[in-house]
Design brief:
The structure is a homotetramer of 341-residue chains. The first copy, chain A, is an alpha/beta fold and 341 residues long. Helix content of chain A is 35%, strand content 17%. Chain A folds into two domains: 65 residues, Phospho-2-dehydro-3-deoxyheptonate aldolase, domain 1 (Alpha-Beta Plaits, 2-Layer Sandwich); 255 residues, Alpha-Beta Barrel (TIM Barrel).
């Protein structure tokens, strides 16, 4: 941690800062400087950095405090140099091959789900996504089928062999969802629901963690830390678009996030073009871009009849569109030295 | 709802859109147009607008769909023209007088809390804020005292007569927090925790709803709708800063939100300058701006010794600073024809 | 144009709006509506839409005004269905093959430029970029070599056969820069320098128009309109990253912009990963993503010795890194059915 | 400047960084550190910081480079502790009294301008604003009256005694505009038009510098530096709203900017609520907030008949609305210990 004093801060203020640092049990190290004093703080462990830094900023004469090392640890590439590979059913996520996941936004009916599941499977998808509990901006929108939806997902898994990715909205639902899910999805709105993350960290199932719509990448890695700290290291980091000033698309795909997360972290990185773009017509291009940028997986919304979908119809691919996209992803994966799982 | 067709969309596509609209039971109304067709949809109730709109966007030939009326109702100024006034203890929030709330970010100890509570009371604060459960970005930071913190808050209320505003993090904690709180605070990270909002809507206590850091004002009013739909109309809308590109301050205070929310909604509007600025030195100016812009209340973090605070030290006011700010707010309130409660 | 009245707006206000519309010479068309009146305005030509819309918004009882068709015309895909192909030297931009452009941020010396130009040529680059006039955030930074830089660019063109892309900062420099440039580059800070755009529209040379760091795509197309309206239709649209809340990279690459611009416009679309990412290590991934998403060209900063570069050293590729990237782009282009020019 | 090495960067990389620093003629100072090395660089003057920092970031093993002191100097509060007071006609801007400026967006006609000028004067406005050259997003919108507009402004000054603030769009227009203007306005789109800024720095007239819509405050102070470096220190910093994700208002007023700029800089700070909000109905509240937050001036658009305005009708105040706002600003100024000039 580095403390930058205000220009011309008197010696007494510098001494106060040093005294506070030492009172907390750390070492202060003053740098020479002409205009302003810079003080390095040694010995602060990661777990305390955010707190100590904010407190030091309240002292008179302090301009700002810069944290040198990241406030996350287990999710960092510094913790382990090798890519984490997560196994779900027979599929490996985070290895050399790119994994495609598909399915409807919401499970709506047995027929809708089974038709979609078979289409996903036949096209080359390796996991089936589908929501049984839906967080909806409006309280008057369809909220999902609940347990009935989970049962249909299990039936679709039975019928196709595809493992299931489904959203867990709330700690209340954990026992129920845990009975059915192969992968827990944490939605963007819940990226900072720390209690939920901690509880998932005590399960033994992989977690697909979606980035909050205005979360910095650093904050996403701190959220992963909540899941990992009690031992569940099977976390996938999912970029799903961020909120910006541009309204041409529903969100802005932060494609930079893919190489950055791959360097900062050893965890698999997934792209969700359906949410990050939000319009069917532009989704294939962004899915291809995700693979070209180094994503380990692509998750796509598929619906047999988008104009009748109870949610996200405008960003769902029809089965034949999905099938075409998978072919394109296979070609791009080949071009960057990978295959499709 | 208005559907804008792509330029040159053939008649058959227009007919399909009309057919879908009528299949759903609504009336389609075609506007004349030279370049492109515009179709108005009549009869869609608010509760279905978001869904229908997204589905229609998936149809061939549709350029985009615009929703004419707001997707919220109970929180709208159109629902009731009079300002909602919320009574907590003897204090009225949303009436002519501006209410100041103060207290520490986290309850840390009996001594810290009581000292702060008395200071808040003596300076003219009318509610005491303090967190017992803290959502922290890092899993390694102080997470609050839990029930012990709530008991201390109750003791401070006893000692000073100030009603308590405290955060509810999770549905799990509701029975416990409900025993102690006078006002439930919903933090920015939880603005879209719809299940929590629904449960709070079934209590009879006021809710201070903080805006999500990248929530549009419209989305904030939809979140209020989740609380209000089962009968709890005691919701305060709290601006606490949004996420933008500028890093001079911790967040960007969206001061525009104050007059906009006052016009769009009948609910009281509160400003939280501590979070929206994040640095003690600039908080008084923004608190004054909030009152000048029409806020019904100002909520401020106060700590007897910010450099030892376990959270938010860098944005806490010392008791004497808080007292000075209250005096300034009284003067500005007078200038805009209001008093301090 | 569609005017949405406030809920409960009295008949007299509706009549006023209609009267203003008719006074301006247009036709008003009232839609039936239960809660609020919607009025369509017919006959307004594109050139007046922005103005009329803003004026109508000032009338009593008007909630908001929505423009139905785009406020740009010549740059729209509706104007011409075929892709515009721009020819520079022997290179076609906007056709089936993807074009790679490379070169230093600033021309610094004869040796630096020639070494880079040969490296770009040998690696498969088809245009040479290099700045002679540099807009720098700090007045104390290197501002470019000026005419001397242009002469060196001409010499490099002579030596390698590569056409030159160079920035025009100001109308003052137009005669001089026009003597040397094959393609005028308009920098992001100048996207709304409308006088410069108009002057470029009266030349017969292609323009590489960079997107402003907070310009909506719609605004970028309006900027292109300024160049095109007097007859110069040779405009390339260049995404170079937008400003967002995330600070992991210098800007956020708006990869969505690529398929959106390709659909909305017939103009060639270029991606500049050097600026949109800002760190050498992540540039190759984003360049590949650009080609996968459908970009017609990629422009990259190349420097023989980035640690001695007078500008943008941190985002320049060394010649051998550039060469490697070109190979990767060739593979990705092949995967999406294109080649490298 | 502080260089943070990557964790585990080998000694050889640290040595390379030190060698580069010393080659440039500065002193390197290594800090002890457990996980990662931190190197302070001493002796780099402000004028070189941005450049050197970007180059050092390109070296192997460097994680990032942090600049300790600001890359601006003359505009900094550290340069001079006293507030700069700018005199225009008999008015002082930046002193104890708050200055109100008003006038139309564009000069449209003699009658419109004179009527507005008298209304501004009578209501208590002290400067007259009005544009003769207008930058318009669409090439088909009204672009201003040009020299004719300047002449009308001079006539209005004659008639009312109010000094004139008018926009300078381009270096080409400088001789002409300099003949008429009392204060040059630099529009938001031109904040980084460095050549224009430099030329204005060689005049002896005050400059009202508007913040770019996505410029950080630090960048705004660097832009001021371009004007100040050749001796013209009469710069006013004008907040006019920034671009964010929220679309409830045209821009987001960054009210935090006011106290931050007042602390970081000695220059007067002005707020432009007309652009920062964009809707007449909410402008008064934001103007009051600006004064409460410490602005030295408020600039407002006034038009006798907004529904006929050729630009910005939707954000103009009618004369009687302007007069009412001035009264409110007088009251708020009094509440914060100031008067209206």
């Amino acid at each position: 941690m580095v403390i930058i004093m205000q220009q011309g801060a008197p010696r007494a203020q510098v001494d106060d800062v040093v005294a506070v640092i030492e009172r907390e049990g750390f070492r202060a190290f003053e740098n020479p400087g002409v205009e302003r004093k810079v003080i390095a703080v040694l010995g602060v462990v990661d777990s305390q950095k955010m707190e100590i830094s904010h407190r030091l900023e309240s002292l008179d004469g302090v301009e700002r405090v810069t944290i040198i090392s990241e406030p996350y640890k287990l999710s960092s590439r510094n913790y382990t140099a090798d890519n984490t590979v997560i196994r779900v059913g027979g599929v490996e996520i985070g290895g050399n091959d790119v994994v495609v996941m598909g399915g409807p936004c919401s499970v709506e009916s047995r027929e809708q789900l089974l038709e979609t599941a078979h289409a996903v499977k036949n096209a080359g998808g390796r996991l089936l996504r589908g929501g049984a509990f839906k967080p909806r901006t409006s309280p008057y929108s369809f909220q999902g089928l609940g347990e009935e939806g989970l049962k249909l997902l299990a039936e679709a898994r039975e019928a196709t062999g595809l493992p299931i990715v489904t959203e867990i909205l709330d700690p209340f639902d954990l026992p129920l969802v845990a009975e059915y899910a192969d992968v827990f999805q944490v939605g963007a709105r819940n990226m900072s629901n720390f209690r939920l993350l901690e509880l998932l960290g005590r399960t033994d199932k992989p977690v697909l963690l979606k980035r909050g719509p205005c979360a910095k990448l650093r904050e996403m890695l701190q959220a992963a830390e909540y899941i990992m700290k009690d031992g569940n290291h099977q976390v996938m980091l999912c970029e799903r678009g961020i909120v910006t000033f541009d309204d041409a698309t529903r969100n802005t795909t932060d494609i930079n996030a893919i190489p950055v997360l791959k360097q900062w972290s050893h965890l698999p990185v997934i792209l969700d073009p359906s949410h990050s773009v939000g319009y069917t017509r532009w989704i294939p291009a962004i899915a291809r871009a995700g693979v070209a940028a180094g994503a380990d997986g692509i998750i796509l919304e598929v619906h047999p009849n988008p104009s009748r979908a109870l949610s996200d119809g405008g960003q769902s691919l029809r089965p034949e569109q999905f099938s075409k996209v998978v072919g394109e992803l296979r070609a791009v994966a080949g071009a960057v030295g990978r295959g499709l799982a």
